[in-house]
Design brief:
single chain, 148 residues, alpha+beta, 2 domains, globular
């Protein structure tokens, strides 16, 4: 089992904290909670999705992101994180690690970026990381009609 932290770095104010936020995810929700506890994140910061545990995550500031990597979380690009979810959704766990490592430079990833295709959740592939995790685009300049 592995814990991941992406490089989303969305500028936002959450409660009293303004900063750049990324996502801490894991292969299992249990492992995610254990790692988050070691990292010092309160359980109330957990964003769980009963219908789709692949979307379970904690939002983390740059400081927590750096500490998570120091503690062993695997840093991935937001594109790699999106690809992991697509592979998990398709049931293809075999060979996922190799696919993850080449995802940010793969022609498939570049094709997705250029075409901005919509996946089966109706989210734009360019915004799949925050869209599939939080249910919204996460970007101020993108209108998310489903969650407006």
């Amino acid at each position: 089992m592995t814990v991941y932290v992406d490089d989303w770095r969305q500028l936002a104010t959450v409660g009293p904290v303004t900063g750049r936020w990324s996502h801490l995810t894991a292969d299992s929700t249990e492992e995610l909670h254990l790692f988050a506890e070691r990292l010092g994140l309160p359980r109330r910061a957990f964003q769980g999705h009963r219908s789709d545990p692949r979307r379970d995550h904690y939002d983390v500031t740059e400081e927590y992101r750096r500490r998570a990597v120091e503690m062993g979380a695997v840093p991935v690009t937001w594109r790699e994180a999106a690809r992991m979810r697509r592979l998990a959704r398709s049931g293809s766990k075999d060979g996922m690690d190799a696919d993850i490592r080449e995802a940010s430079t793969s022609s498939e990833c570049l094709d997705l970026q250029q075409s901005a295709q919509r996946d089966d959740f109706g989210t734009c592939a360019l915004n799949e990381v925050h869209g599939s995790l939080c249910g919204s685009s996460g970007r101020d300049d993108i209108v998310d009609d489903e969650n407006a």
